């Protein structure tokens, strides 16, 4: 397959670039001003556990700790109804639901009250549905009901889009987030049968091809965090070719990665990976987590997060991911988060994290911010390409404030789960 594609794709893109004239682009905002804490990393993991249907035994403890927005940064503007009611939604390839806070939420729902809310009575295009919706998040749940209305994404007018009006939001996890809700860009099979916005975009002929492509900027700002290109590919963003791999099953954007290597250690040899713009981290299976911590000399805190000695950053190795025959390199500056402790000490958190029960490589923005990603719904494949050198600029990814003094490890890693059954969508 490889040789043929390598030759054909660039020529094809050249033609495409000419024939399509202009591609529809929507700016992605990167929210960089939120108060980032280690607690936010934990909150991010609660959300991940819910998204991937993992049993998160620590969720109730984590939820108590979380009072700030979490580290999910990339958003697009989406308007619902007539006249339009607009929302700032997390752009999430790791889920498939569209949800916004409902004006029918309780006054005690703090997360709802502090965000934009959808009011169906104020929309002439609203169609009632009313079916219930619930997604379990550790100690709380995201729940509400379905409604149908016109959805406008940057001028693409989607008719009869069914979405979730969220009435309850889990614990404090969604309080103080910079986004109001989430727009899921995964496949419809994980949205309980509701056609996703992109399904409807395709069905209603709003794009020429059933593809969207994403360039997340790690040096992004709230004005410019990257862009999503609807219906095609922009050759000016990447260099070389786009390497496609088939989607393992159309649910998440899941595919087989050839290998992940650090020094001479093979952390993955044909493993299942997921491209998830809705997390900043790279969440890895337990065996890989243990191995990479040994190579990085990183110390696990007992909660699936590992810290390295900041003075050793320059001596840390690159991590090489091989996908579809092309190797993508993550340098320490890409995968280490610097946390600011209260005492002004800097702590260095490894971006390779562990979540109990997870058997997949969940590749978040640490990886996706380094590549141009093509989400090809029509051909059920995902493509990655290297960014043009001028299209990205990387510093240390984030400066967090580290809220809590380092607690002694309270939870040993539970090795016993390893080899347990896959969560329901992965079988
Ligand atoms: C919803 O919109 C209707 C019609 O504009 C308005 O009367 C009502 O007060 C709004 N409800 C809320 C909770 O904002
Ligand atoms: C609500 O939406 C779901 C998903 O699109 C659909 O299956 C169901 O028939 C709808 N229910 C009503 C009452 O419209
Ligand atoms: C949206 O629903 C209305 C009423 O059911 C229908 O008349 C219209 O054709 C639908 N539009 C699309 C694009 O499906
Ligand atoms: C590994 O980390 C430990 C604790 O941070 C430190 O004492 C030790 O010197 C480190 N080893 C290497 C090879 O850097
Ligand atoms: C932390 O560093 C800043 C600037 O470097 C300084 O102004 C502040 O006093 C320091 N705080 C503590 C607690 O050391
Ligand atoms: C990168 O440089 C090329 C050529 O100078 C230019 O056409 C392109 O727009 C630049 N891309 C970005 C993202 O700045
Ligand atoms: C950021 O979070 C820390 C720890 O929770 C808190 O002490 C501080 O007041 C917060 N700062 C802002 C600007 O919200």
TrEMBL record:
Organism from which the protein derives: Drosophila erecta
Recorded name of the encoding gene: Dere\GG23677
Family the UniProt entry places it in: Belongs to the peptidase A1 family.
Name listed for the protein in its UniProt record: Peptidase A1 domain-containing protein
Matching InterPro entries: Aspartic_peptidase_A1, Aspartic_peptidase_AS, PEPTIDASE_A1, Peptidase_aspartic_dom_sf
One BP annotation, GO: proteolysis
GO molecular function ontology, one term from the record: aspartic-type endopeptidase activity
PROSITE patterns, alphabetized: ASP_PROTEASE, PEPTIDASE_A1
Cysteine disulfide partners in this protein: 105-112, 268-271, 310-348
Keyword annotations from UniProtKB, A to Z: Aspartyl protease, Disulfide bond, Glycoprotein, Hydrolase, Protease, Signal
Source species, domain of life: Eukaryota
Residue stretches making up the Peptidase A1 domain: 74-385
PANTHER family: BETA-SITE APP-CLEAVING ENZYME, ISOFORM A-RELATED
Signal peptide, first to last residue: 1-21
GO cellular component, one term: lysosome
Catalytic residues as annotated in Swiss-Prot or TrEMBL: 92, 276
